[in-house]
Amino acid sequence: MLIHRAASILILICLASVATAQSNGEAWDRYNRARERLHKGDLERAIVDFTRVIELSSRAPGGGRQVRQDLRAGFNSNAAADEAETDRIMFIDPLTAAAYGNRALAYFRKGDLDAALADCNRSLIINPGQIEVYNNRGVIRWAKEDFDGALNDFNYVLAKKPDDAKALDNRGNVLVNRGEFKSAIADLSRAIELEPQHAEFYNDRGEARRRSGDVDGSLADFARAIEMNPRLANAYLNRGMTWNDKKDLDRAMADFTEAIKLDPGVALAYGNRGLVHLRQGRDAAAQADFAECLRLEPGLSDRLEQLIKREKARRASQ
Q1: CA 59 remoteness from chain centre
Q2: How far is it, in rounded angstroms, from Cα 209 to Cα 237?
Q3: Could you list the mean pLDDT of each consecutive 10-residue stretch along the chain, which spans 318 residues?
Q4: How far apart are CA 124 and CA 80, in angstroms?
Q5: Which position among 74, 217, 276, 303 has the lowest Cβ density within 10 Å, counted as fewest Cβ atoms?
Q6: Angle at 207 between CA 201 and CA 209, to 5 degrees
Q7: Nearest alpha carbon to residue 208 among 197, 220, 196
Q8: Inside any domain, residue 275
Q9: Cβ atoms 11, 37 nearer than 8 A
Q10: Domain that holds residue 13
Q11: d(CA 49, CA 43)
Q12: Does the residue 2 lie in any domain?
């Protein structure tokens, strides 16, 4: 089966108090509008608005030279920005940090991981006390397959807030990618204890159990996730892979199909369903699913090609 990447949890950045901000009314109006657009998925216009907020909230007169030097040193240490970027920062305003942090989310959802990481670094240099931004940077690093960097960020969050369920879930998923299943399951189980209402946490623990070889435990977790949220496409995708592990291809096919029905943009569901079609001798249907999988996520090409060759070799040997 194609490797599944669990859903990641990012957090919208909020300011604790409006009274702490130095920015003018236009900056705040833009900021609130940008957050609303981000929430609605209007990413392009959210980025435009957050960029304008950064301009408005960081170019007021006073104290510019030392702040630019401090920021430039910090940016360089994180490979996050060039001098042109730091030259625009004239003073530190909490709104500037929040705008960078939220623009990072917009870039992440667009798939621009480098821009998202750079904005998280900028946000943290301006205001290093933002635990949410460390969590988000960890997710971005995880998506870039920088598992050590992601783990460092989640460890930092949990050192400050040991009962942060979202950070526990995220760290658990990174540990799964590192093959540290016992520690991963401990983190994911603790996240469920803290916030048992999250179907995604059961789904993530189910995937950790599946990868560790605990097939029955994984099926129980996926069933619970689907019971709590029958529209959670990732739970059907993961359960389909578990049925495949048990060689129950009919149930695997049903779950992959349901995942596609719920979210037609899940490339892995098409790829995995195509492999089941191929195993059951439906080559035309398999090719159609493979084509859609690669249209949605071209980066899966090499892995998918290996699995197709393996399946065809298995068939030829029978």
Answers
A1: 32
A2: 15
A3: 58 52 76 94 96 83 42 43 45 81 95 95 91 95 94 96 96 95 98 97 97 96 98 96 95 98 96 96 96 94 94 86
A4: 11
A5: 303
A6: 100
A7: 220
A8: no
A9: no
A10: 1-144
A11: 10
A12: yes
